Amino acid sequence: MTDNRRRIMNCACFILVLLFMSCFGHTTASGSCTPKLENALFEDLLSMMLKIKGTDKNNGIHQHDKNFSAFAASLTAKKILGSGETVKFDKVWTNVNNNYDPSTGVYTAPNSGVYQFSCSVMSGYKKSLRVFLWKNDRKTVAVFPGNHGHDMATLNMVLELKKGDRVYIKQGGAEKYIYTEAASNFSMFSGYLIR
Description:
- By secondary structure, this protein is an alpha+beta fold.
- It has helices at 3-25, 35-53; strands at residues 70-74, 79-80, 91-96, 100-101, 106-108, 113-123, 129-135, 138-143, 152-161, 166-179, 188-193.
- Strand 7 and strand 8 (138-143) form a beta hairpin.
- The protein is globular, with a radius of gyration of 22 Å.
- The chain starts with a helix and ends with a strand.
- The model is unreliable at 16-32 and 53-57 (pLDDT under 50).
């Protein structure tokens, strides 16, 4: 069990003990837990603990999560982007089920669902940058970090995707100077399936 899972399991156990004590140990001014509420809370916590604990031999991914998808990648070198160039975030930190392709910079949705995407970019020193989050061949939202120094900007977007939809970050306008340092990973792109 990884340290992160151990911490989550410990927290879940702690919450379970607190709920047990609050429901059985005493009543509050607003009353006590009803048997129906106690049972529902217990079942939710038990389900959460089993999900955390129960893994298969597929790199620690839960058996029920084979349809889950998540990625996080960063840029390893500063660059002057070409007009309309897709940014290839080439250092992959996480790529559950390999739906992000660092050679193209494109994430392909493995299933229909609701997804969360985030991108943080830094402009070159006293240079400007404008990038857009694209869904297939359609612009969604943009960020413009500015040109006062090494300026940062972040975008967050929730998109409803169909299986096979593509999401990526693409340069737009005349602003094209993206900055990063290999040891600091200032510019990054990530996303995951919510449901």
